[in-house]
Write a structure and sequence with these properties.
The complex is a heterodimer of chains A (481) and B (450). Chain A has 481 residues and is α/β, with parallel strands linked by helices. Chain A is built from twelve helices and 24 strands. In chain A, the strands form three sheets. Chain A has a ten-stranded mixed β-sheet with strand order 4-3-7-9-12-14-17-20-22-24. A six-stranded parallel barrel of chain A has the order 13-15-18-21-19-16. The longest helix of chain A has 17 residues. Chain B has two domains: 274 residues, no CATH class; 61 residues, no CATH class. Chain B is 24% helix and 38% strand. In chain B, strands 3, 6, 7, 9, 10, 12, 14, 16, 18, 20 and 22 form an eleven-stranded mixed β-sheet that branches. In chain B, strand 4 and strand 5 form a beta hairpin. The chains are: A alpha/beta (481), B alpha/beta (450). Strand 23 of chain A pairs antiparallel with strand 22 of chain B.
Amino acid sequence: MATALDTVKDYTEAEYKYGFVTPVEEDRFPPGLDEDVVRRLSAKKGEPDWLTEWRVAALRRFFAMEIPDWQKVRFHPIDFQAISYYAAPRQKERPRSLDEIDPEIRRTYDKLGIPIREQEVLAGVAVDYVFDSVSVATTFKRKLEELGVVFCSMSEAVREHGELVRRYLGSVVPPGDNIFAALNSAVFSDGSFVYVPKGVRCPMELSTYFRINAAGTGQFERTLIVADEGSYVSYLEGCTAPMRDENQLHAAVVELVALDDAEIKYSTVQNWYPGDKEGRGGIYNFVTKRGACRGKRSKISWTQVETGSAITWKYPSCILQGDDSVGEFYSVAVTNNRQQADTGTKMIHIGKRTRSRIVSKGISAGHSDNTYRGLVRILRSAEGARNHTQCDSMLIGDRCGAHTVPYIEVKNRTAQCEHEATTSKISEDQLFYCRQRGISEEDAVALIVNGFCREVMNELPMEFAVEAKKLLGISLEGSVG
Amino acid sequence: MSVAANRRRVDPDPAFARAFEEAASRLPGARFPELATARERAIARFVELGIPTQRDEAWKFTPVARLVNRPHAVRPPSEPPLERVLPHLLGGPKARRLVFVNGVLQPQWSHVGGLPERASIESLARVLETRPTAVLEELAEPDQGRSFTALNAALTDCGAWIELSPGTELADPVQLLFLTVAGASAPMSHPRIVLRLGAGARLALIESHVGLEPGPALTNLVFGARLQEGATLAHDRLLFQAAEAAFVGRAEVHLGGASRYEQTTLALGGALLRSESEVSIEGGEVECRLCGLAVPREGEHVDTFVRVHHRAPASHSDQLFKSVVEERGHHAFAGKIFVHPGAQRTNAYQKNENLLLAEDGEVDVKPELEIYADDVKCSHGATCSELDPSALFYLRARGLDAATARGLLTWAFAAELLGRLADPSARAAARRALAARLPAGAPADEEAAA
């Protein structure tokens, strides 16, 4: 047994591979946050007045809010005045072709195993590269433009598609939603914008790759995806950061809007720097992600594999407004050493016959704490709503914690809700069964852990599954051999 | 205290402090200065803590202040006729029993005679008069910010103190019957039950809270039990409050190694029934079973709040809570299994099933696991839905009319919990109360059998 656990530990304790720093020249604001900083940031990006005022209003709300105390995760107070709210690799202007990108940045992505050019050609995935809050490259743009799909950085979207952005920005996650959403609304520097027009099935996966490089900064990107009637888009997100002793804040906001018959599939492989074994450093990943199924028969599906960050605190959610709309949430969260995770989802059933499915798998090791927190709310109007929730936790070692905190609120009798949760360690019976059939202990553990997460891993798009394997310091699939 | 924390409490109605001042001198044990001081401290603490609002996580689903925060009278006299009390005397002809009306002991209906030498059953009022220091120790237990516990400490005047020495077994059950006669006076009572079971002792306890007349009333109970090695406690709880009455009860149970505790709560009536149970498993080989049924209707609100702490390895806990929610009923269930570090080889299960029968009913569920040991088996399941249409169809296809079919299925769902009550007379009383609540009543043949 000890060997088997050691094997898992070897992988969960594997050193972080993406902890290098890229020496690029950068353009940044001194630390501090006030209205002036926000106005300067907005001016620097050449934003229209409505957006500047929207940011300032959000900042005022931010100053009036406090960090809540209901969460399981514990962290030192964040000094919001010590953060620099704008850091960007210095370049004269946005490169027109991929060849013009700063070679240092290109080398960074090469080191991460996702060479910008190779990615484009081999994988056929359109990628937006965000380096310290600023989008540095977007691939496959022309091909997408032919279909009318807009895929660009948020800054560009504000310039080129101002009306669309204005209509949807903050409509799913309002600036006053929570303190980190308010902060993000005030200081977001860039992010991705996607618009898929009516009836278009986006032919390739769209992807954003986030990298925090500069010290003393945070990352505050904003993603907005709008899928018009009858359209489909699959979106992938990956991220890494250098190893530092300080805690860096990542407070992003992701908003999804699906109109009639539209479908959005959003996948995340989160591998921010988790801190060292004693819990020094690492990213605070405090992200607000929410999707609105506004249209009839629309569908939003979240898949997340959370392995990084010192603290992960987020609840990708679905507001099921349109009749017959569907929300899905698939999650694997792995915590190790001193990592903390408090993650889950919210499914708000408003429309008739809305359906939601939640599958959450938590694996805790070392001294870590892993919490699933979720809400299923069925309003009186949600005739015939249906929910199934399953959250399973696996514990490796006796000093970690696994917690489940689901809320189920039902106001309609025709609704059907089911929730089940289990907690256990790797079954010795299953191990024995495998060993008896000649499978080595290492392979057996891999098999069982892989089986434990299979329902979620299956939901990852094929292209991403390959990338996920590279990006993840631990791959559950190949955790042995 | 931050602004956010402040909104979690509202100031209690000044009538509470006034009622305390007015009643303090006639509460049992008032002549002992230490006791009087402790009570004064407790009422000050209650006023300081305030009444929780729904911003307090433990009261998230329950607007307790709206139902409770109003003037109440302490110990208003009332003499209900015997024939109204008789149906609620449970436990068989040989049962020992303490009966209270609005917090006042009724000696004419109570008897605890013929006890073995090593057992004692006393009313709390008597212990307050004869052994005030023992009660002081109980009252000095930290309230951990629970304002109702502090209020109980200030005003407690009724209840029981039961001690069984090691190896003592009581063959017949003990019933504690708390009757509330609301009338015009809006009575409040603050019972406290203290239970000590020595190693290997056995007791069957029936705890009944019955409202005889509709009207505003408050029962604020604190129940504390300690079971030593190998002790057994069967604990049947019947909450049959009348309309408009509120019940706020907290049970704290400590279980020593190899002890056995079975609690079954039937919440069948009352504007607000909040029952908190916090069980601490402190030894190995413990068997702990908690069950409950709630059938709220017509604006009634039942809030079941359960915490099971596994603090020692190799114990077993099992929870089964059900509800049938009728028109305008509201059921909230928050149950948590807490496995502390080192409590390896714990088996802990929790099941919560809710039948939502009315369009304007509501069910809120929060089943929680908090686990700090790896070699454990813990699970919870929660469901909420209407009756299964295929089961209905099955019965209809066999010639049952819709109402009978629905009645039969609802009864079958709820009646499982009747079987969990340890005492046959408690089971019969609960069956009658349940049949009166469900629209189709009990199935005919079952009634004949009963």
